[in-house]
Amino acid sequence: MSREVTIFTDGACSGNPGPGGWGAVLTFGDHRKELSGGEAATTNNRMELMAAIMALEALTRPCAVHLYTDSNYLKGGVTTWLAGWKRNGWRTADRKPVKNVELWQRLEAATERHEIDWRWVKGHAGDEMNERADLLARQGMAPYLTKRKAAPGA
Predict the structure, then answer these.
(1) How sure is the predictor about 37, in pLDDT bands with cuts at 50, 70 and 90?
(2) Where do the TM regions start and end (predicted)?
(3) DSSP H stretches of helix in 22-127
């Protein structure tokens, strides 16, 4: 795998559940690609997963990936819990169904052809690329936010 790609991902949600968005910044050498999207009714964890899924699915060939996330749910899930969930028939250690199973399965499929180094970054702490991914996530959410109407006479 000769192509080395750095990815920063983030998810956002207004209410949980509520309208949400995801964002990703992919860099390869001097090239940069930004992705974002959203949903009308979702959760912050689903948007964190979607950011990673969409970024990895955007890669057109196998890559060595450094993927940065501020989500302990995403990083812990993919690096620690996923193998056990699969062994347990997509159930947690206490035998409950894994939440967001369809997204975890899609993420697993998106990781198969890449060599990925999952890295945690503290959110909202001034990391330029994490802040950009956060902005993209909020932009992805924006079309799904209901605009509040001003009260008559206001």
Answers:
(1) very high
(2) none
(3) 44-58, 72-76, 82-87, 101-111
Can you say which residues are annotated as belonging to the binding site for Mg(2+)?
Answer: 10, 48, 70, 134
Asked if residues 123 and 69 have their Cβ atoms less than 8 Å apart, the reply is no
Instruction: Judge if pTM exceeds 0.70.
Output: yes
Active-site choice (23, 77, 134, 140): 134
* Active site annotation includes 30: no
Residue 60 tokens, joined: 């057109």
Asked if residue 153 is part of any domain, the answer here is no
Q: Is 69 helix (H, G, I), strand (E, B) or coil?
A: strand
The amino acid at 114: H
pLDDT tens profile 103-133: 999 999 999 999 999 999 999 899 999 999 9
Does the residue 130 lie in any domain? yes
Number of domains present in the structure of the chain: 1
Q: Is residue 104 part of a domain?
A: yes
Distance between CA atoms of residues 38 and 95, nearest Å:
31
